[in-house]
Amino acid sequence: MKGKFVTIEGCEGAGKSTQLKLLKDYLESKKENFIMTREPGGTILAEKLRNIILHFDEEDICPLAEAYLYAAARAQHINKLIKPSLDKGKLVICDRFIDSSFAYQAYARKLGFETVKKINDEALQNIVPDLTLFLDISPEKSFLRKGGADKSDRLERENTEFHMSVYRGFKKLEKIFPERFISVDVSGTKYETHAKIIEILTKKVL
Ligand code: TMP
Questions:
Q1: Do residues 194 and 23 make contact, with C-beta atoms less than 8 angstroms apart?
Q2: Which residues of the chain have pLDDT under 70?
């Protein structure tokens, strides 16, 4: 594996999209050899699974099935896009990855860390992020900043307690994976956060 793999995580409304856009512009200006992708998604099949996971409302998706759907999308994404890109020496930036499964499925949906790890072990095909940046803001603050949840999204409709347990899940991951998981305080302006992200990326992977 020659390229570097960076994942960006955060609760709903943490400003991921804004930061990814700023980061994309920055990497293009520096002529970095990179791709930007997302989970669930990144390939045709994985995007179809994303559509099911986020918008399927004909019956409840049980937590275990949900975890397997994310893992299936991940297996396809790694196989078709992430691994080949890393093999070509590219920098791969991914909007969410395995840590979202830990925070949402293991902690918030209460499947437990070991179960989610087991479900994902094969899917991951030994691909581990070199660096994970967690955009650190509690959901209470981020929803206020964003002006409420997007009601068309099955997951954003979940209650505050669900989103708080996702947040607490991410904070646990900081302790479990200290070698790669870095929290970035996003309480400042979007440009201040962007500067922090560039500083960490430059030090760790660029
Ligand atoms: P996004 O809208 O931020 O791209 O994320 C899609 C939703 O999917 C978001 O609510 C988080 C959730 N998710 C999981 O629950 N587990 C996962 O493994 C991933 C990748 C996302």
A1: yes
A2: 1, 148-149, 156
Q: What is the pLDDT, as a whole number, of residue 1?
A: 59
Atom 4 of ligand 1 has which residue's CA nearest to it? Answer: 39
pLDDT in the model for residue 85: 98
Q: How far apart are CA 109 and CA 102, in angstroms?
A: 10
pTM of the model: 0.95
Which pLDDT belongs to residue 126?
Answer: 96
Q: Which atom of ligand 1 is nearest to the CA of 95?
A: 4
Is 96 near ligand 1, meaning CB less than 6 Å away?
A: yes
Nearest CA to ligand 1 atom 2: 12
Hey, which residues does 107 pair with through a beta bridge?
A: none
Angle at 17 between CA 12 and CA 18, to 5 degrees: 115
Write the residue with the smallest CA distance to atom 9 of ligand 1.
155
